[in-house]
Write a structure and sequence with these properties.
mainly alpha, Globin-like, two-stranded antiparallel sheet, 10 helices, about 60% helix, binds protoporphyrin IX containing FE
Length: about 200
């Protein structure tokens, strides 16, 4: 079932008060070209959405299970008293919405502005949204890059449940990988000096 965005605390897609991201439409189009992200990939993501939307909670269980089974990752959700369950739950709701947003993205200015914000939330803006100030101040950039692989690999078994055949599965899986890389490329703005971004 699709969660109503109005009920997700801290979710700000489409909020006109967000600053625009660093990339305009042309720059983003070039990033798509550099990632080999095509209209076929957009179509494959829409097909993947039909399969993944009913499984978002199970997907989140896998990803949260991965974070929860590694203290050095759970650390970024934890303070001196241990893991902040309220913080974990609030981020989980936005993470679920991000899966759907990624699968149906039009990649317009609102998407670019919100993904710049999501990058900021991993970097200098971490903890602001949920008031989780007792947790570490940033997620180190190296882990954000490393996470591309598990976020990509773990989706395969979920896609396989609805794929028509092996070729369809591969097409959706590769489109998902490109989409995650595009997200992280946009998020990187928050970590990189402007003249190097
Ligand atoms: C490909 C890599 C990653 C993806 C796709 C991803 C995805 C997300 C999403 C969708 C959100 C919610 C954004 C929103 O507020 O709407 C989020 C927040 C968060 N993620 Fe990640 N993430 C990644 C890497 C990591 C890593 C490696 C960690 C370290 C454990 C991490 C820890 C967090 C934390 C602590 C928040 C909450 C930030 C805040 O205070 O607002 N993420 N992530």
């Amino acid at each position: 079932m699709r969660m109503s965005t109005a009920t997700i605390p801290g979710y700000r897609m489409g909020d006109p008060s967000l600053p625009a991201g660093a990339l305009d439409a042309t720059a983003f189009e070039r990033l798509c070209t550099a990632t080999l992200f095509t209209d076929e990939d957009r179509q494959a993501l829409r097909e993947a959405k039909e399969i993944l939307a009913p499984q978002v909670e199970q997907l989140l269980d896998v990803w949260y299970g991965f974070v929860g089974s590694h203290d050095f990752l759970l650390h970024y959700f934890s303070g001196p008293q241990g893991p902040n369950q309220d913080y974990l739950a609030r981020v989980r709701a936005r993470f679920g919405r991000w899966v759907l947003d990624t699968l149906e993205a039009e990649y317009g200015p609102e998407w670019l502005a919100y993904q710049a914000e999501v990058g900021r939330r991993h970097a200098r803006g971490k903890n602001e949204t949920d008031g989780a100030h007792e947790t570490p101040e940033v997620v180190p950039f190296r882990y954000v890059v490393a996470f591309i692989y598990p976020i990509y690999a773990t989706v395969r078994e979920f896609l396989a449940k609805g794929a028509r055949d092996a070729e369809h599965l591969e097409r959706m899986h590769q489109a998902w990988l490109k989409a995650v890389i595009l997200n992280v490329a946009v998020w990187s703005q928050a970590y990189v000096a402007p003249d190097l971004y």
